[in-house]
Amino acid sequence: MPGATGGQSVGGARMGTDTDGALRAVRSLVELDETEEAAQLYEELGDSQRERLRKQAAQRPPKERRGLVEVLRRARDFLGAARLMDGSGDDAAAADLYAQSGQYLEAAEAWLRAGDSVRAAAFFERGGALERALEVYRGLGARESMAQCLVRLKRPFDAADLYRELGQPHAEVEVLGSVTSEDPRYIEAVLRMCRLLDVEGFTHRALAVLVDSLTSSDAARAEPAMVTERARLLRRMGMNAEAEAVLGRRNVPSAKPVANGYRFLKAIPIFSELSLEDMKDLYRQARQVVLAQGSVVLGKGEPAVGLLVLMEGTVDVFSGPEPDARRLNSLGPGAYLGEISLVQDAPVSAHVRARTAVRALRISRTAFEHYLDTHEAAALRIYRLFTQNLAERVRALSA
């Protein structure tokens, strides 16, 4: 089709050089149910002509605007289509179009008007309006999402309090670990981390955190409570002589930190390109679970529970739940199960039982979808790597 010049006839309408003519031509094609041709005509207009056409179209009745919305959508002018949808009564459709155009705050407001506060909050968060997202999450009672917002707002103690209420000590430790030595509450954060780690069985790591803070902070070295806590942790490890030496202000060797679930989660291939900040946010989405020896970890044919990352213990993978089912594999710390279920709602394809007691991290599909909704750059990296890994598996099977 030639450019929008001259006096050609389009769909029975005479198209002139002015925008009125262009709008009439587009409207005529819409009336003739020639939406694709109308979209092509719209694409061929200049920027200023399209802008004037949209302004004129906004004055048309809602019913007529809906036809023009479809034209703009097919032409991939998602923002123009969204703005034409405003006031039409279909706020959910407008929100989707705003989201496609990358206008996340406008999408969030439209979702609010549509009555979908969950999506509205996620898009406020994605668009960087964290205080607004926090307000909506608070109204929803979504404490985990509130905690994530508080982390991004640099309010670690508020976030830590929520994680404590939620029973997520690993997330509480991670967020307290972001408190710098310049913060007036730094010592409080360190002591709180040490007690949490100790309760969770990571006494060596608690001592390492404490020693590091004493090494790097003059204020920490001058704080009697830090010395007392160091001695307490040493006693917990059976190092009574060293504890007495600390109280006598003599140097003692530091302990090495122990591994936790973060490094296992970080090692999963589809997360290999996440930034440190995005990786920490993902880790806080996880929940620790403990499974007894002999319990079913994943039941074949049952709904998937999301990603499971083993931190301690061993599981056996069987072809099915039958007593004589063939054992396919055994997995230990660092192994992971169910990553496919993060992006596909399908039943479990194998039967997994705990050979020993197991401690693991679990990320549910719901939590992961929320993470993707609020971390656009991370979502693109994850999907790209997921697609690459899937393609490699297909090639391997074909070979």
TrEMBL record:
<feature type="domain" description="Cyclic nucleotide-binding">
    <location>
        <begin position="270"/>
        <end position="389"/>
    </location>
</feature>
<dbReference type="InterPro" id="IPR011990">
    <property type="entry name" value="TPR-like_helical_dom_sf"/>
</dbReference>
<dbReference type="InterPro" id="IPR018490">
    <property type="entry name" value="cNMP-bd_dom_sf"/>
</dbReference>
<dbReference type="InterPro" id="IPR050397">
    <property type="entry name" value="Env_Response_Regulators"/>
</dbReference>
<dbReference type="GO" id="GO:0005829">
    <property type="term" value="C:cytosol"/>
</dbReference>
<dbReference type="InterPro" id="IPR014710">
    <property type="entry name" value="RmlC-like_jellyroll"/>
</dbReference>
<dbReference type="Pfam" id="PF00027">
    <property type="entry name" value="cNMP_binding"/>
</dbReference>
<dbReference type="GO" id="GO:0003700">
    <property type="term" value="F:DNA-binding transcription factor activity"/>
</dbReference>
<dbReference type="InterPro" id="IPR000595">
    <property type="entry name" value="cNMP-bd_dom"/>
</dbReference>
<protein>
    <submittedName>
        <fullName>Cyclic nucleotide-binding domain-containing protein</fullName>
    </submittedName>
</protein>
